[in-house]
Amino acid sequence: MSSDLTPRILRILSEYEDPYRDLNLAESGVLTRCELDDGELEVDLTFPYPLAGMTRSLVKQLKPQLESLKEVSSAFIRVLHEVPMMPAREGTEALPGVRQVICVASGKGGVGKSTTAVNLALALSAEGGRVGLLDADIYGPSQGLMLGVQGKRPETHDGKTFEPVIAHGMPVMSMAFLLNERSPTIWRGPMVSGAFTQMLRQTNWGNLDYLIIDLPPGTGDIQLTLSQQVPVNGAIVVTTPQDIALLDARRGIEMFRRVNVPVLGVIENMSLHRCSQCGHTEHLFGEGGGERIASEYDTELLGALPLDLSIRELTDRGKPPVISEPDGTVAQAYRDIARRVGARLTVTPAGATEGGLITKTQGTDE
């Protein structure tokens, strides 16, 4: 290979931005391989978060630029990802095989937290990540219904650990799998914490890039205890635009600050309603609330999702939009959020890991 080819490739990459980080492709260090053989150039671009949905457009932009180099007759570009193994926070114990842990929380119920958690998990999986989902909402577990596996029971081969239920190719654990569907969970705090710890620590999660934990709503003692015990690398706070929900969202952010968990950003649900008959749009619950909170706490508005009947209907049927309508606008919005979350984990304080901790490669070829 010509000794000056790599610098010229880097110059081309410097003209393109990493879609979800404030870096161009040259300074972000994603160029991990370039080889030229008889005019055929092979290039590997390895991102620290999964972005399968961006692969085609990225290759389409870069391919003609690389083939404009005089030594190159054709260029083959592979877009890969390597999710770093994050160290557990002080005072917590890492989960074997789990690289990063993300909590999804809300200051109050009824804002779509669980719907967000399940669609985020499925979206990260659709982007190429290996993802698991833990339903930690002990009193109101809903992920079994949302994933179409209500009534399933986890198996145990050794009498000590659980094999998670598999839903849409994703390992899932929930209190809904351990109790009768109509049985209320009438437990005090220590029992709840014990049940959560058992599901978290005694489930055979396998090798995961991300474990998504759907926390109970609120900011009470249980939520604080769980946040302190879990090796969380980042948290997402879900809200709706109205003032009462925003007030509680602030409390949620403050809770994570108290236990030194980085807040990756805010997701605003029910931000806009579009009439299915006439197309008129209306902000039924207020406008710009999520963005104001994100700005106030120096974090990011990860996404704003519409008040859409299909989200509720499809999720209630056990086939959330990311699975049932993968090319729809709602699914694409969740996948954009998923890529944004993965990227945010690499730039938060918890994401400042050494290169030697990267342990897995999985990617998409073009």
Strand content: 15-25%
CATH fold node name of the largest domain: Rossmann fold
- CATH C-level class of the largest domain: Alpha Beta
Low-confidence stretches: 351-366
Q: What's the CATH H-level homologous superfamily of the largest domain?
A: P-loop containing nucleotide triphosphate hydrolases
Number of domains: 2
Largest sheet, in brief, is:
8 strands, mixed
- Given helix and strand content, the structural type is alpha/beta
The number of helices is 11
Radius of gyration: 22 Å
Report the principal-axis shape.
globular
Please identify the oligomeric state.
Answer: single chain
- Can you give the mean pLDDT? 84
Helix content: 25-40%
Counting DSSP E segments of at least 2 residues, the number of strands comes to: 14
N-to-C CA distance = 22 Å
Order of helices and strands: HEEHEEHEHEEHEHEHEEEHEHHHE
Tell me the CATH architecture of the largest domain. Answer: 3-Layer(aba) Sandwich
Strand order of the largest sheet: 6-7-5-8-4-9-10-13
What does this protein structure show overall?
This protein has 366 residues and is an alpha/beta fold. The chain has 2 domains: 5-81, 2-Layer Sandwich (GMP Synthetase, Chain A, domain 3); 98-353, P-loop containing nucleotide triphosphate hydrolases (Rossmann fold, 3-Layer(aba) Sandwich), CATH 3.40.50. The chain has 11 helices and 14 strands. The protein has helices at 5-13, 52-67, 113-126, 143-146, 189-201, 221-229, 243-258, 289-296, 309-316, 321-324, 329-347, and strands at 31-37, 40-47, 74-81, 98-105, 131-135, 165-167, 170-174, 208-214, 234-239, 263-268, 273-274, 281-282, 301-304, 362-365. The chain has an 8-stranded mixed sheet, sandwiched between helices. The chain has a 4-stranded mixed sheet with strand order 1-2-3-14, with helices on one face. Helix 3 (113-126) crosses helix 11 (329-347) and helix 5 (189-201) packs parallel to helix 6. The radius of gyration is 22 Å and the shape is globular.
